[in-house]
Write a structure and sequence with these properties.
Blueprint: H1 52-74, H2 84-109, H3 114-131
Keywords: Copper, Copper transport, Ion transport, Membrane, Transmembrane, Transmembrane helix, Transport
Pfam families: Ctr
Membrane topology: Multi-pass membrane protein
């Protein structure tokens, strides 16, 4: 049986990407707990970067995605009397797009950045208030 002298505790070593080096940083470390700050990667490697303006853009993007998820959850774009088969395929397409955007919001939140988390939660809240609660529209949109 082969023994690993560097890891006698029995736990496997961390994956290779966990402490991957980055050309602009000495070491990048994935956060596994919530943290605050603008140094975050949201959805894509290197985005939003280190600027405050790009971080604000990333938060706005996550907020907008969450609002869109709520709109797609509440909207009814099918006209009464529409072809049932066509309407069913259309609803399936809308549902698929809503699910994909919801997963993007979830992946953004998995950055464990407090600002990204708050942007997603507030986006869902605003989206539901506008499109789902009936406060702004008499009937559902």
């Amino acid at each position: 049986m082969e023994t690993n002298h560097h890891n006698m505790g029995g736990a496997p070593p961390p994956p290779s990407w966990f402490n991957a080096t980055h050309p602009h940083h000495k070491t990048t470390l994935m956060h596994m707990t919530f943290y605050w700050g603008k140094r975050v990667q949201v959805l894509f490697t290197g985005w939003p970067g280190n600027s405050t303006a790009m971080y604000a853009l990333a938060l706005t993007f996550v907020f907008a995605l969450a609002v869109i998820v709520e709109w797609l959850s509440q909207c009814n774009l099918i006209k009464p009397g529409a072809n049932r088969v066509a309407a069913g395929f259309f609803q399936t397409g809308v549902h698929t797009i809503r699910g994909a955007i919801a997963y993007l919001v979830m992946l953004a939140v998995m950055s464990y950045n407090g600002g990204v988390f708050l942007a997603a939660v507030l986006g869902h809240a605003v989206g539901f208030a506008v499109f789902g609660s009936g406060v702004f529209f008499k009937g559902k949109p």
